[in-house]
């Protein structure tokens, strides 16, 4: 009997979803016709392996799906913002999928608080389901929405879907958040307890099954997809960004990831940012194929818990002793950095790639960031804001964390005098100048601009400025 019990307990541990959710689901025939729940799409633009959507569908009440184009975010974006075009296209796909089941994706444009005040008055709305977001604005928005729904006694159910471990789930032995990546990474892996041979059974990575048939709210007259123009945007040209894991091979990631001329990175940042792929399926792929890529995904979780536990990093350095650096903040030099006209070819190639495509190779991101902060002595927040405007895969936690890492004021233990030499980086990682020639057409001709600073002198100037505050 004990052996049988142990086997059954092990089986439940491998497949917890099926024992938790299906046993409690009521049949739709017992639900009043006007009763429904809402699934609110945000950073989870997919139907498959979507935790909040799964539990909404398992609630036993018909599900209506919605998305809100948030004016608090959109009003600060340029007319041809690539990310809005990307979101719009992905929502169109979801809308078509739901309409195939005689339902719809209802799309709103406005202030989320005003929209939810109206939705809370909807007759028959019983519950709201959504996946958690960890940025300060999103946390406050969800508190405000919860307060609105609470007045109507409508529960707001939120779920962890964007990360494997969130908030304070990975802590030191002193029960405090980690501040350095390496011990965090070690603790993260210990918590996952991953066996690559049986990774599909890991309780943290099991997918959430999707069953739409008979579980969506029937909508007789589905609304037309709102146009970008109606929201004040124009169609932007989008270069290829994978939205799923098909054709993604990371087996050589550790060997190829630092070579910008090679197609050696995943380019999955945009898909992860907007949730067109599941972090669970992505993590499983990484664990099975390449540990270096796996570690990169854990960096993403590390920076998310830094943002959540130390929200001051949004506007201030993680290590506050660096708050009083005497930045030069030369606006003309900043503009030349933005346009890729610094006279340092690897920096210029990276910035031109970013401006043209919304993407920049990871190694080059570090070089361009180091150059702005250390060579030009320009406040890292200027560069962070520019990347936030341009990057397709922009998310606050990773962008902020990586900029503070480059500035030497962030979480990693490396000293502030780590300063990349852009010319040495070029020789090491783009020795044949293939990447540079692609983006800086006039390179190696008399038309190419002269360097705006002398790296050696700029390095000494930077060290002096940092030493003054340390």
TrEMBL record:
Binding site for FAD: 253, 293, 296-303
Cofactors that this protein relies on: FAD; (6R)-5,10-methylene-5,6,7,8-tetrahydrofolate
Domain of life of the organism encoding this protein: Bacteria
Site note Electron transfer via tryptophanyl radical, residues: 327, 380, 403
A single GO BP: response to stress
Similarity field: Belongs to the DNA photolyase family.
Protein name per its UniProtKB record: DNA photolyase family protein
InterPro entries: Crypto/Photolyase_FAD-like_sf, Crypto/Photolyase_N_sf, Cryptochr/Photolyase_FAD-bd, Cryptochrome/DNA_photolyase_1, DNA_photolyase_1_CS_C, DNA_photolyase_N, Rossmann-like_a/b/a_fold
Residue ranges of every copy of the Photolyase/cryptochrome alpha/beta domain listed in the record: 35-164
Organism of origin: Membranihabitans marinus
Keywords assigned by UniProt, alphabetized: Chromophore, FAD, Flavoprotein
């Amino acid at each position: 009997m004990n052996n049988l019990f142990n086997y059954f307990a092990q089986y439940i541990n491998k497949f917890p979803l099926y024992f938790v959710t299906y046993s409690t689901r009521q049949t739709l025939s017992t639900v009043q016709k006007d009763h429904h729940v809402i699934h609110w799409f945000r950073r989870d633009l997919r139907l498959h392996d979507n935790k909040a959507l799964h539990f909404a569908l398992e609630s036993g009440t018909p599900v209506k799906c919605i998305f809100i184009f948030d004016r608090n975010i959109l009003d600060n974006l340029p007319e041809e913002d690539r990310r809005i075009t990307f979101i719009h296209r992905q929502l169109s796909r979801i809308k078509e999928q739901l309409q195939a089941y005689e339902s719809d994706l209802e799309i709103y444009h406005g202030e989320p608080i005003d929209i939810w005040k109206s939705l809370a008055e909807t007759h028959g709305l019983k519950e709201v389901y959504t996946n958690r977001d960890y940025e300060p604005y999103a946390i406050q928005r969800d508190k405000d929405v919860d307060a609105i729904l609470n007045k109507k006694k409508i529960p707001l159910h939120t779920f962890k879907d964007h990360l494997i471990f969130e908030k304070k789930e990975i802590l030191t032995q002193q029960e405090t958040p980690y501040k350095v990546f390496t011990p965090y990474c070690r603790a993260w892996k210990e918590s996952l307890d991953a066996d690559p041979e049986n990774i599909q059974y890991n309780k943290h990575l099991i997918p959430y099954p999707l069953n739409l048939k008979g579980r969506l709210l029937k909508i007789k007259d589905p609304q037309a997809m709102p146009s970008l123009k109606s929201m004040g945007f124009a169609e932007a040209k989008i270069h290829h960004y994978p939205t799923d894991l098909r054709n993604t091979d990371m087996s050589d990631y550790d060997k190829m990831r630092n070579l910008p001329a090679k197609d050696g990175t995943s380019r999955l940042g945009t898909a992860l940012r907007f949730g067109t792929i599941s972090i669970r399926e992505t993590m499983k792929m990484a664990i099975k194929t390449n540990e270096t890529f796996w570690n990169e995904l854990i960096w993403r979780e590390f920076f998310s818990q830094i943002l959540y536990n130390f929200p001051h990093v949004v506007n201030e350095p993680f290590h506050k002793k660096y708050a009083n650096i005497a930045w030069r903040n030369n606006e003309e030099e900043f503009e030349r950095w933005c346009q890729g006209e610094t006279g340092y070819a690897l920096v210029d190639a990276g910035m031109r790639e970013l401006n043209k495509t919304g993407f920049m190779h990871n190694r080059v991101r570090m070089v361009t960031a180091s150059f702005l902060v250390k060579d030009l002595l320009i406040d890292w927040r200027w560069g962070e804001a520019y990347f936030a405007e341009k990057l397709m895969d922009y998310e606050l936690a990773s962008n902020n964390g990586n900029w503070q890492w480059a500035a030497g004021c962030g979480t990693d233990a490396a000293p502030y005098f780590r300063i990349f030499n852009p010319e040495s980086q070029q020789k090491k990682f783009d020795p044949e100048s293939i990447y540079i020639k692609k983006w800086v057409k006039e390179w190696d001709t008399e038309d190419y601009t002269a360097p705006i600073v002398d790296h050696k002198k700029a390095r000494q100037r930077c060290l002096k400025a940092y030493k003054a505050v340390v």
